[in-house]
């Protein structure tokens, strides 16, 4: 009996690998055939819808010709036999299969976006025509790895933002977004169907239906229709305020010293008038000693900051600062049915203050970082924050400000908050911030100038290697299409995919104003934030202090004036008394002279004493003395008035 031959391990491994590759090839071929069939069906449905709308003659349908099935590429690891050719199937016109990706690359995209957990569906792969079986998704667990939505004006960034926000909210994730142009409010109203919309959504495998999201409207400082969102100057901080005021680094550090002084002195900085009061006090005669104690803060610098604050307030910005200060935890709300609340910050009324708007959003993000606990990697974020018009935030920003942004973006991930920057070109966002982003949805870019072309090439260089000529594709993308790559559940980038994006289920135009007003009036937050509060703060404290100082100075001056008057009166009285004594002495001398002159020579001794003459008796009488005194005082003017 012959002993069984032991199989060669290398041969066994090669056969196993061969079987695996054959299975993958067959699966990819099946997926491609299914995608072709669905694309053909979508094209036929679109043509039928167009015919119904009068866009094509009745009865005219697209001619669909069979094409050869795409053969899977054999593996280089081992020679394999090609599988038997499949029967021809109906497929879309040649343009739909003549895309930039071959079958293996399409299969790689399908595999790269096949996630196990909850996802946000971005759209379907475009390979000439949409491939509905190749869905492009973002794992919700990876949404706190941040992202970027970029593209030229009119390429569909706002609709992308709306679609992502709707899906996140539907899966229980609260969303915050700034409504720059006012058209994001449509998320609160069910969308409107049309043949064109349905044909587009069927082609990408989207089961579209109109649906509204739970929406809360907010307005900065109450300038608008939403619930007022305010911040105190102390909470805003010197770094963000310096960015808004356009201060240089020296002035920024000086403003930080002013905040330090106010905190140390127990002066609450609630609104801009409080900060102006502190600066006015420090530059006054009474406050200059305090100013010197701060060190490094000159009166001239304090004066510059004060002038900038006055200009800033005159532009109407003071309405954004005050109390009650908004608690950012109110953005983390979930509706009773488990859906996340979409918080829309209305800013059309403040679009002429872009620096304030963008910096205020950064303040809200920094507040979230301060209050939220560490959560690590969660199944879904606590909040996704869409930072629209992000280029405004980084324009003319100081190094310290950029450093603060990078630190916040880097660390807030662990707090369960995802941040998506929405802007026109990736170059608007600093490289240190871009390095923190996990998902990218890049709409079309335009290259009309050499600088644009340079920016386009720089953008292309940041993408993983793909089967696309991205420098060309990024200029050929249609409205509602984008180049997408995201972070997989394993933390690796997914294949680059030319994607036709899903349509929002809400209204793609603004919600009517009566509905917005009704929603704001019904908001439970209106009672909490609707009425402004003006409590005692730095302005009142310093005003009272300066008034008290003024009163004390006035009292001291009055006492000095009174003492001076009393001294003058005493001096005058002494002069009068001296003059009166001199006059009386002279009168007495005159009296004695007259007495001697009238005295007789004869004397009549009486009782041992000389007898007084009649004249002496008359002159020494009280009546005569009174008359003489009156005469003398009249002559010399020594009588008291």
From TrEMBL:
Gene3D superfamilies xrefs: P-loop containing nucleotide triphosphate hydrolases (3.40.50.300)
Keywords: Coiled coil
One Pfam assignment: HerA_C
Top-rank taxon, per record: Bacteria
Coiled-coil regions listed: 11-52
Lipid metabolism as UniProt keyword: no
Region of interest: Disordered: 72-97, 595-616
Keyword Coiled coil in annotation: yes
Leader sequence segment: none
Listed Low complexity bias regions: 87-97
Domain (Helicase HerA-like C-terminal) ranges: 130-638
Cross-referenced PANTHER family: SLR6007 PROTEIN, UNCHARACTERIZED PROTEIN YJGR-RELATED
Name assigned to this protein: AAA-like domain protein
Species for this entry: Microbacterium terrae
């Amino acid at each position: 009996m012959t002993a069984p031959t032991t199989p060669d391990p290398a041969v066994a491994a090669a056969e196993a690998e061969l079987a695996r590759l054959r299975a993958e090839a067959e699966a990819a071929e099946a997926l491609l055939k299914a995608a072709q069939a669905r694309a053909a069906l979508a094209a036929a449905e679109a043509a039928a819808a167009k015919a119904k709308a009068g866009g094509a003659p009745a009865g005219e349908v697209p001619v669909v010709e069979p094409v050869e099935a795409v053969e899977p590429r054999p593996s280089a690891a081992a020679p394999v036999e090609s599988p038997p050719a499949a029967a021809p199937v109906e497929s879309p016109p040649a343009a739909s299969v003549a895309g930039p990706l071959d079958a293996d690359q399409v299969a790689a995209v399908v595999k790269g976006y096949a996630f196990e957990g909850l996802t946000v569906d971005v759209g379907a792969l475009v390979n000439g025509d949409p491939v509905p079986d190749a869905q492009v998704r973002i794992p919700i667990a990876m949404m706190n790895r941040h992202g970027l939505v970029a593209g030229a004006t009119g390429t569909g960034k706002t609709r992308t933002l709306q679609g992502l926000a709707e899906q996140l909210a539907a899966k229980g994730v609260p969303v915050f977004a700034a409504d720059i142009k006012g058209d994001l409010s449509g998320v609160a109203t069910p969308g409107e169907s049309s043949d064109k919309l349905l044909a587009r959504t069927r082609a990408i495998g989207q089961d579209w239906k109109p649906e509204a999201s739970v929406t809360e409207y907010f307005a900065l400082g109450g300038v608008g229709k939403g619930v007022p969102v305010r911040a105190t100057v102390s909470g805003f901080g010197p770094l963000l305020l310096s960015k808004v005021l356009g201060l240089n680094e020296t002035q920024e550090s000086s403003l930080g010293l002013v905040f330090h002084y106010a905190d140390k002195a127990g002066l609450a900085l609630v609104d801009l008038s409080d900060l102006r009061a502190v600066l006015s006090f420090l530059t006054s005669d009474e406050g200059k000693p305090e100013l010197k104690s701060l060190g490094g803060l000159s009166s001239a610098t304090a004066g510059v900051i004060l002038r900038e604050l006055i200009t800033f307030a005159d532009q109407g910005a003071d309405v954004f600062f005050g109390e009650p200060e908004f608690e950012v935890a109110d953005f983390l709300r979930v509706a009773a049915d488990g859906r996340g609340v979409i918080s829309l910050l209305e800013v059309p009324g403040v679009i002429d203050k872009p620096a304030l708007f963008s910096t205020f959003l950064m303040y809200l993000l920094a507040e979230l970082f301060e209050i939220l606990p560490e959560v690590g990697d969660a199944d879904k974020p606590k909040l996704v924050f869409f930072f629209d018009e992000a280029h405004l935030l980084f324009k003319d920003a100081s190094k310290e400000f950029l450093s603060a942004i990078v630190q916040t973006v880097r660390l807030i991930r662990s707090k369960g908050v995802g941040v998506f920057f929405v802007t026109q070109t990736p170059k608007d966002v600093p490289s240190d911030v871009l390095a923190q982003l996990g998902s990218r949805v890049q709409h079309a870019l335009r290259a009309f100038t050499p600088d644009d072309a340079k920016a386009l090439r720089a953008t292309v260089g940041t993408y993983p290697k793909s089967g696309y000529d991205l420098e060309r594709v990024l200029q050929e993308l249609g409205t509602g299409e984008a180049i997408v790559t995201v972070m997989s559940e394993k933390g690796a980038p997914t294949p680059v995919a030319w994607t036709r994006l899903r349509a929002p289920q809400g209204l793609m135009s603004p919600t009517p104003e009566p509905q917005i007003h009704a929603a704001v009036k019904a908001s439970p937050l209106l009672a909490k934030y609707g009425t402004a509060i003006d409590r005692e703060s730095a302005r009142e404290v310093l005003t009272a202090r300066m008034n008290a100082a003024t009163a004390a100075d006035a009292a001291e001056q009055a006492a000095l004036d009174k003492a001076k008057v009393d001294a003058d009166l005493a001096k005058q009285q002494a002069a009068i008394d001296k003059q009166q004594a001199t006059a009386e002495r002279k009168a007495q001398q005159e009296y004695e002279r007259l007495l001697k002159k009238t005295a007789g020579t004869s004397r009549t001794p009486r009782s041992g004493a000389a007898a007084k003459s009649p004249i002496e008796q008359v002159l020494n009488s009280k009546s005569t003395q009174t008359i003489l005194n009156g005469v003398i005082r009249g002559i010399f003017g020594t009588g008291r008035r």
